Amino acid sequence: MSLPRIESSVTVVTGASSGIGRAAALAFAGAGARVVLASRDETRLRQLEREIVAGSGNALAVPADVTDTSQVEALVRTTLDRFGRIDILVCNAGVGLYSLVKDLPEEALRRVFEVNFFGEEDTRSYLIRMVTDQFTKIINVPNMKDHGAAGVTGCLKNLAYGEFNNVARSHYHAQTETLTFIGTLARVEPLRSRTVLNIMDGLRGVWHAGPFSRDRKYRFYPKQMKFGTDPVAIDRLLIDIIDDKRKKEGVISVWNRDMKYFTTKPEDWERDPNMNRSIREPGHIEYASTLGLGLYDLAKIDHVELTV
Q1: What span, in angstroms and rounded, lies between the C-alpha atoms of 207 and 198?
Q2: Cβ–Cβ < 8 Å for 15, 93
Q3: How many C-alpha atoms does 160 have within 13 Å on its Cβ side?
Q4: Which residues contact 100 (CB under 8 A, 6 or more apart)?
Q5: What is the tens place of the pLDDT at every residue in 148-188?
Q6: What does the pLDDT average to over 83-101?
Q7: Does 303 reside within a domain?
C-alpha cells in the first residue's frame, strides 16, 4: 500500500498485531506518521513496535482490548499524553471462528460478538466524540458483504453505521429507511470531508445473511481489495461482485423486492438464500451519489485493476 508522506500526523491502528492492521501500521510508519499500535497480543505488538523503531519510524505500543471500555479510554489518554492529538483512526480489530455454530462453546460465540460488535460499539462511542475536536483524517475499512436490509455492506454503510449509535432503528421492519438513511449520515460533517481513503477488503466476503452471517456456506473469496477516495464508486462495484456471486449460486438478486420472497422468520432467511428479511435497498448507493458523495455511473468511474 502506497501512501503520500504524512510526516508528524498521529495514527491509531487497532488490531495492529497481525494482518491488515499490521500492514497498515507499517505503511503509515513508512510514510512518516507517528503510529500508535493497539492490540491484545502484547508480544507481537512489542515486536512490531521494535521493527518500526529499528527502521527509523516512530511507534508506540499500547496493549488494549477493544471490548473493555476502560482500556479504550486508556488507549486514547495514552496517545494524547504522548502525542497531544489523534489525526487518523484505523478501526481494524476483529476476530473470527472457523467451526460449525453447533460445535462452538457459548463463551467462544460471546467473544466474537464482544470484539466485532460491542467492541466496535465501545471504540466508536468513545472515539467518535473526538472526530470534530481531534481527528483530521479517517481511513474507512469495510468488508465485502451482503446485507439483509441495505443490499450490501460497503463504504457508505460502514461510515454511516460505524460512526453513529442506535442505527438499527433504520431497519426494524420489512420496509426500511436504509435507502436515504445511509447516505444522509455519511454526508454529515466533519465525517464526510475527513474520510480521505476507503480500503475495501475483499479477500473474503459474505454473499448472503450478512453482515453477521456465521454460516460458512455463505462465505466466498473474491481475493481482491479496492482502494479509493470515492465511497459511492467502490460500493457501485461491490453491488456487482455480490450480485454476480448470488447469480452463480442460482439465488435471487439483491435487487429483488418481490414480497413472495419475504419472511418474518430469521431462521428461514438464514437457511434459504432465496428469502429476504427486509425489502433490500441497494439503491442507497445511487441515492448517495445524488447527495454529492461520489460517482455511481460505471461509465464515469475510473477503475484500474492490478494483479499481484
Answers
A1: 21
A2: yes
A3: 27
A4: 216
A5: 999 999 999 988 887 766 667 777 778 888 999 999 989 98
A6: 66
A7: yes
Q: Which amino acid is at 222?
A: P
* Residue 274 belongs to some domain of the structure: yes
CA distance 86 to 95: 25
Q: Does residue 109 lie within any of the structural domains?
A: yes
Find cell 467462544 and name the residue: 108
Per-residue pLDDT of 103-145, as tens digits, reads 656 565 454 544 444 444 444 544 556 566 666 788 888 889 9
Structural domain boundaries, residue 263 = 143-153+168-194+202-308
In the block, residue with C-alpha cell 432503528: 169
Identify the H or E element spanning 87: none
Total domains, the chain: 2
pTM of the model: 0.67
Angle at 302 between CA 135 and CA 195, to 5 degrees: 10
Together in a domain, 189 and 299: yes
Residue 139 near residue 199, CB atoms below 8 Å: yes
